[in-house]
Design a protein that fits this description.
Blueprint lengths: L1 H15 L1 E2 L5 E2 L5 E8 L5 E7 L5 E10 L5 E11 L3 E7 L9 E6 L1
């Protein structure tokens, strides 16, 4: 199970690794995107999650944080419950990030 998670994050790092900035990030669930992804001074990742599909989302969102060299330096997760065609602000705490971090997100 741990091997699958590690391989999944490596795959996502190649596909979905993104610098910190206000842009729309796709997830591995069609119609679900993240916006306004940012790291706070205390190492928390804040974002807005938007579900463009009519299907509700009840899943765990995992984040892996990468430094400027592309090495994984932190991770975290949060349970997400979001109705269809809706959105909300959320965060994942204590993930060891900073302004130069890049992120890979995956629902599982």
């Amino acid at each position: 199970m741990l091997i699958k998670r590690i391989l999944g994050f490596i795959f996502l790092s190649l596909v979905m690794i993104t610098p910190v900035q206000s842009q729309t990030l796709q997830t591995n669930i069609e119609g679900v995107v993240l916006k306004k992804v940012r790291c706070t001074f205390y190492g928390n990742v804040f974002f807005t999650i938007s579900n463009r599909s009519s299907s509700p989302i009840r899943s765990t969102l995992y984040v892996t944080v990468f430094d400027q060299d592309g090495d994984p330096v932190g991770n975290g997760s949060r349970k997400i419950n979001l109705g269809g065609v809706s959105g909300k602000s959320s965060s994942i705490s204590s993930v060891n990030c900073d302004k130069s971090s890049r992120f890979a997100f995956k629902f599982q």
